[in-house]
Write a structure and sequence with these properties.
Blueprint: E1 3-5, H1 7-11, E2 17-20, E3 24-26, H2 28-38, H3 43-46, H4 48-52, E4 60-61, H5 63-68, H6 70-74, E5 79-81, E6 86-97, E7 101-102, E8 105-120, E9 123-134, E10 142-151
Parallel strand pairs: 1-5
Antiparallel strand pairs: 2-8, 3-8, 4-7, 6-10, 8-9, 9-10
């Protein structure tokens, strides 16, 4: 559960890390369920036998599976501003998939508040850069700028 801090202190966090999440296992069951929901059954994701001879040596998680976890990762932020009533997904800016996530890998997000912008009365647009790390690898799976509209 994030710690609520005064809004003025929260605004001073631009450019600072706002938490590192718990590791999340990307197993074949999760990949298959994501494939079913999105109807993306490309063999590099779901055909374990064929993937053994493919470019990655095993199945990999969908890039959009990794991206879809941003919402869950956001709930593990270290701080939120006091008085926040709700937040909504406002979209994404730049998203890059830098490394495949092999089945059986664990990923986590390192979150940095990169911008805060007043959008209206009692509204603050927050940009959070998520760097999705793969356990044991130097190169991240994904770097994405997520936008959240905070209501007070």
């Amino acid at each position: 559960m994030p710690e609520a801090i005064p809004l003025e202190r929260f605004k001073q966090m631009v450019g600072q890390e706002n938490g590192v999440t718990e590791w999340v296992l990307i197993d074949q069951d999760r990949i298959n369920r994501f494939a079913d929901v999105t109807e993306d059954w490309q063999w590099i994701h779901v055909d374990e036998e064929k993937a053994k001879n493919g470019p990655f040596g095993k199945t990999i998680g969908h890039g959009f599976l990794t991206l879809s976890l941003l919402s869950m990762f956001s709930y593990q932020a270290k701080y939120v501003p006091e008085g926040i009533k709700m937040s909504i997904n406002y979209g994404l800016n730049k998203v890059r998939f830098l490394s495949p996530v092999p089945v059986g890998s664990r990923i986590r997000s390192r979150m940095v508040i990169t911008a805060l912008e007043e959008k209206g009365p009692n509204q603050l647009l927050m940009t959070t850069t998520h760097t999705i790390e793969i356990e044991g690898q130097d190169k991240p799976a994904c770097v994405a700028e997520a936008l959240g509209l905070l209501f007070f």
